[in-house]
Amino acid sequence: MQSLEVISVNIWDILISLLNLLIIFLLFKRFLYKPVRKVLDKRKVAIDTQYSEAEDAKQSALKDKEIYEQKLKGAQDEADEMIKSAASAADKRSAKIIDDAKNKADGIIRQAHGEIELERKKAAEDIKHEIADVSTLLTEKMLEREINEKDHRDFIDSFIEGIGEDDGTSD
Question: What is the pTM of this model?
């Protein structure tokens, strides 16, 4: 028979191996696992901080975007209001210019009518005097006598005024 020592179990060897394994485990835990765990925890905290900062930056960017959009809308509204105001002012100014031009044209027309009326009256007076002179000459020639020119002119003026009054009522 062969010796059973090769297959035999030695409790002391097992205990020493277990003790070695326990010492190695404790050494690994103390000098390797805890420092690695601390580094991993620090990295996790740093990553969480970065995510938090990124989220804060995202929220801040969204708020800034909203403020920018409100300002842009306000600026657009202000520009629209300025355009409306400028158009309204231009309309008012053009209406004033048109009114001024109409008033000036009406004034020129009134002045022209007045001048025409004065010229017409002057022409009528000239015609009256011309008729008076001609009729005086004709009357003198017809009667062959001398008539006082002032009496004759008064007589003709009253006659022409009578004709002029008839002429004025028919207009």
Answer: 0.39
